[in-house]
Specification:
With 124 residues, this protein is an all-alpha fold. The chain contains four helices and no strands. Helix 1 packs antiparallel against helix 2, helix 1 runs parallel beside helix 3 and helix 2 runs antiparallel to helix 3. The protein is elongated. The N and C termini lie far apart (74 Å).
Length: 124
């Protein structure tokens, strides 16, 4: 009974942690040429792993009142890590990596433009 009560009190902390995780991944300003796809996938994977860890802690704590603190520790520690990650001094990524991302994006844009401008059913 006590464990379930603490579990219900700790559930809203996951919502806060999810929001902070997404902010940590997607809060950094980027240009329209820089893809956010990888950041979105990483944010989703992090949230899934956090919730899975929460389910694991719930299963482990079972009826033990000594482990009730873990129900709060998982979302609070994830929130703290996300805040640290979001507000730490952001280092610039290497120039070669930026150039590579831009080159790949330009090739993808050129391919999409080529596919959209192609006429159907006629000789070119």
């Amino acid at each position: 009974m006590t464990t379930e009560l603490h579990e219900r009190f700790s559930q809203p902390l996951y919502c806060i942690a999810f929001g902070l995780i997404v902010f940590a991944y997607l809060g950094k300003a980027r240009t329209t040429r820089q893809s956010r796809g990888l950041a979105v996938v990483a944010a989703i994977a992090s949230c899934v792993l956090l919730r899975t860890a929460g389910f694991g802690v719930t299963a482990i704590s079972g009826g033990s009142t000594a482990l009730v603190g873990l129900l709060y520790a998982v979302p609070v520690s994830a929130s703290a890590l996300a805040l640290i990650s979001a507000f730490r001094e952001q280092r610039r990524q290497p120039k070669w990596l930026t150039n590579l991302q831009l080159a790949v994006q330009e090739r993808i844009d050129a391919l999409v433009d080529r596919l959209h401008n192609r006429r159907t059913g006629g000789a070119a």
